[in-house]
What does this fold into?
Amino acid sequence: MTFPPPPAPSTLREPRLLGQTVLLIGGSAGIGLETARRARSEGANLVLVGRDPDRVERAAADVNARSTAAFDATDSARLDQFFAELPEPIDHVLVTAGGNYYARLADLDFTRARGLIDDHLLLPLRVARASVGKIRPTGTLLFMGASDPRPGLGSVLPGAISAALPVLIANLALELAPVRVNLIAAGFVDTSLSARLLGDELDHRRDQLRATLPIRRVVGPDDVAALAVHIMTNTAVTGATYDIDGGQRLI
It folds into this structure.
């Protein structure tokens, strides 16, 4: 007696963000823009925010964003106005704005130091407060940070901020529940920002990471984007910090 072959498994699935709205603050380049592409491929409507109006418009055309806004997210009055004027609730917010600053204590520029603290510790608080009542209860507030570096010369400020962010995020998850609040803590990611920071040392750093990371390759913005979309769609996680560094912390 013969039996028919089993049916082939279907590769079709419903897009995971179909009909949902994703707001990307810092969405005109790098990880923010790559996450916009990934979210769009999953059916999301996109709202992009960035400092540079021209770059935001180019990014919006690239991902077919529904709307855009150009302003400095650290301007608290403008940030509050933006959220207050949103025409309808949103589902997910990703904040990737802000850079980094490494300096030894003797060379520390306190104006830049305050700016870094503003970008990475005060901005999440401002976004969290401004978003109250604007994110649907099933939604996500997601922030980008850096993986906790080992103590070293020049890392006093980035190290302190990296250590503080998971605690801040865990507390925000309780304050904003049932909206979920999470943190992605990235190591080296091969973006234009990394290129600006490293300059002529970029290729050397890439080669070093390929040779030493357990994954034997460099982490790219698409890797972080995939994680961001997963966190948006997994409704069981909140108050968590997700390291994505290719295993760098292990070595």
In short: The chain has one domain: 21-190+220-242. The chain is about 40% helix and 20% strand. The mean pLDDT is 91. The longest strand covers residues 135-146.
